[in-house]
Queue: 3 jobs
Job 1
Amino acid sequence: MFKCDHSTLRLSFNTFNEVKAGNMPEYGEFCLLELKDGRYTGGEWNPREYKSKKSTEGKFIRGTADSVDSSEVSRWHSLERYDLTECLEDEEIGLINLGHKTEEVRSVVFKDFKTFKDGLPKQEQYCLLILKNGGLGSGRWDYWRDKKSGTFIYAPALACYGMEEVWAWTELSTDDIFASEEKAEKERLLEEELNRSPSTDPVKFKYGTDIGVYYEKALEKLRKDYPWASLAQMKKKTQYIITPIHGKYVFGLDNGTFMDSKLVDEWKDGDTADEFVDFLCEYTREAVRDSDPAVKFKFGTDVGPYLEKAFNNVKREYRWLDKKIIDSAWHYDIKQIDGDFEFVSRSSGESDYFVLDCRSAEDFIKYVEHDYQNAALRANPVVSRYEVKFGDIELHGWHLEHYIFFKLKTGDYKVDVQAGDRVTGGNREFFITPYCFEAKTYGEFLDRYLQIVPGYSFGLDKEDLISDVKLKEFLGY
């Protein structure tokens, strides 16, 4: 790698360009920025009017949802026009001048460069980078989960420089994002210190600090109204825990973790242990009430009758469905889990089961029906298609992208609708049931069809479709 000593290296940036003079970078050019308050950062120039080279309105993008408005920038210096390879291979080099230096020319020197052997930047720290290809860059440090590695994010969509691309780095000025991360880290460390020896309210925790005891007491009360109640049913609701917050034990809703910090919604609706037990009864009541085995498993605990009902219900309209087709669908069973029977599913070829949140036999049958319907459509090849033409149609912030009718090998039809915004999207397929084609007129057909694919949800209504002569012919009218 480069032979010079990175720890004594200095980079002097000279001849900055003044924003107020209207002398702006090329569109997409990455620059070192001097802000009006004297801080330094970096960013990729994105003018509001990208065709105008003199426009000073726009922003310098530093990453996804991370940018600096041009109104905050005093001067800029390109980071893209240098290859320092030859200089960095000189063992004696200590200072590299970037840009012609003369009297009264604006210049700034960066030093204290480090390599990853010296350590890692702090989370969200924005840094000036010397790349292994001899180029310059900048980016915001983002740790990976292991906290032992990471990447420098410098543009939208998480475009980044990996550790293998960076030779040395030094910190640029603190900004709001880094300051916020620093504050959060200090708060986390303080919280960690306070929670090492938490205090316990003797009234609120008179039954101790084992949450299981409180659930057991609540269960005793619930069984007076619901004899079938169990702990497993109660814990289908997001579970409460006993955990220290700000140096004292509290009852809290366990919402998992985010950025290595536990998310707990503290219970504040009472001051005593018995009040919390009563609260647990009400909190879990719905889950217990909807787990009545007599309702949930009214056809027994053999999954066969449920699957047969689902198969027969689907076959009424998906006439080509047979038992071989559903072999490609999910596999279902009824298993005893934590003492309670549950509907479960697993993917074909997999051994791990997933518990389904079905509160009644009918819920489970509908769930299976949906799976069988999808399997039936996958097994019925497309023989022809017709794509409906339309203008710009907005659907609750998304834009309709395609609306395609398909004729299947069996003579049946389906439609695929896709919509999206700038960052995401999705599509749905709908089977056009035989009932729609029993209509005597095309208008009556559309009335029935739009009950399946309503215009207010999927973009095209009756007046949009009825005038499409080619679609009418494609559908056989």
Job 2
Amino acid sequence: MQYINHWPDDMAKLTLPEAVSQDLHQQLLQPFDSAGEAKKFWNEISSTIIILDPTDNITQLKESDIWNQIEFALTYPEYTLPLSMDYQLSVAIANDSGSGIYLVIPPELSHLITENL
């Protein structure tokens, strides 16, 4: 699992295949007019990207401090959409200021997580 609570300046450092990383980057930029505007928003309003790894153990995730955020993103998504390579993105708005949780789920875990809520 990768947990990021700042604007990801270098998308290449994400633990994702390049095509999925590019799709995620497009989704992060979508509500903004520019990358600079998006980064400014992320600096002012904390948002989180949680990238699950195909080898993550659901039982261990449930025991982690992060599980509440994962569960919130799965239970109260603003929207969910497919990314490249059968990855899935669930986005939840966490509070009135617009802070978000971006949960990236690999195809190997998508069914396991929904079964374990």
Job 3
Amino acid sequence: MSVAAKKPKRRPAAIAGWREHVHLPELGAGPLIAKLDSGALSASLHAENIQAYDKAGSAWVRFDVPADNERVKARCCDMPLHGERRVKNTGGTSESRFVIETEIRLGDEQWRAQVTLSDRTDMGVPMLLGRATIRGRFLVNPARSFLHSTNQRVKKVKPS
């Protein structure tokens, strides 16, 4: 007779607002406002000057990201290129985007996720977290914002 291994209990998903502050520790970025969007599949980060290159036989990508919500300062980042993905943008047009894998921190949660790089200048927020990125971690309350943020007041600044 064998004893079945018990699965570890997963804690219930936390309730998050439709906008939250996130940090990207590996990129040195944050806090950034992210829109939690269950209608989108993946995560997307505002990036400029995106260039793929070869580094010792491996594919890498260099790009600039906003350091924080002020978007005045940009950080130049170099990350291994995880791939390319065809994504439908908000206008419904399919486009190819570079994909990186990085740590995301929202409140007390921190996890690795694949993130596409895109110019989100006209999107209002520098990051979008889609359902595949937040699945099992957060339930989204569309009537609330910044439930996991220490700074409730956010100054909205147009990207440079």
